[in-house]
């Protein structure tokens, strides 16, 4: 990026005033007077304004980050969770049906303190540690080979001294083979070390860029710069892992194999011996991964007696439903797990499951209620019920697809509630049992059936796509959620596990609760923004986990 020596605002007023500052968001130079107005104006007081001298000294890795939409040259306004990209107002037509659009300012807010940023820093640190570890291991292997070479020479020399000078020629041949093997082995290892040095330099550069971003970059620059750095990290991680998978980091050894017929060498033996190269697993291939060691990143303390629903807000806060008879409520926690507030719900309404419509509004189902069976829309700002939609039977699980609420109604077809006019339509052939939960993704609906111990997938037309039933693995399925890749996460209350099912319903992976410090899982939520999963136990326990994909 370039900047002008004249104030951009004064220039529009046909005044010639030297600039002293630079606004990164507006990409304009400002004089001292315009800078004061800029920092106090409601529209621009949150902008990152710095001295021109400081801006000029910023590294290109920061100043080259594009702050405007590359397609329309407009400011980013929203973030598409499905495609993991920021969009301007002109992009909304292309992403309008994606279902999950979030205000961009919410996504980038405090990004330097986010778990994603800390995770990226940790990945960089781990990669540097692993590269140094492998380099040290390879250098040690070279020293070992050289020492073994000395040992082999000593053995050969000792043997040669016991036999006739006639063996000189054979010793020469063997030494030539030894030198050749040594050179080939060392050259291969040196080539690998050279590749590691290249990766190390690239990662060191990323580390430098990270430090510069932490000091000088705006939240927007940090967020966008992170994406590019993350790509480099992934590429270099794959290079290191491929070295291990291709067995390039095997421990190389050389040995002198003594021919068993040496006592009769003069008459019976023609070869003097051979040099054997063996490979065995090396300590250098034991990579450090802090992310894998720290899968559970937060244990939440909740004052609920019976948790039946949970979710994560756009800003990273946590919401839980307490279904305890007579004490129904919503409990809200801050992003750091500290208690925020409670919203008591009268027995008239009750509460079972919830879903965020936006960062200020949630929808709640009543489950079994003494009076009303409905879906409530609650304003989190004033913490009051702003609307209720009556239903003919008890509603349990609920989800939001970006336009409508879809809820499971006991012994009836699913009800779809439009968020525009709150009209209701039904999805045929989707009758659900009590305590069924629901989620949706990419034009499909996924819901649990605790009575039949199965998970179902159907279209909005009611046509069944697949069903998953394996009572050895999943019993009494309750909460269900879906990640950004279309994988379905289901908690089994009786089987005490989490089952991850592929989007086509053909593959699955089981995660047992003893790995997650939970015993009776009831609800689950996948945070597509932060790539984390929140799992609640029915008995007042909830944990947050990082999700990594292999």
Automatic annotation (TrEMBL):
Keyword Zinc tagged: yes
Drop me one GO molecular function for this one.
Answer: zinc ion binding
> Where do the B box-type domain residues begin and end?
2-52
Q: Which domain of life is it from?
A: Eukaryota
For the keyword Glycosyltransferase, the answer is no
Q: Which UniProt keywords apply?
A: Metal-binding, Zinc, Zinc-finger
**What name has this protein been given in UniProt?**
B box-type domain-containing protein
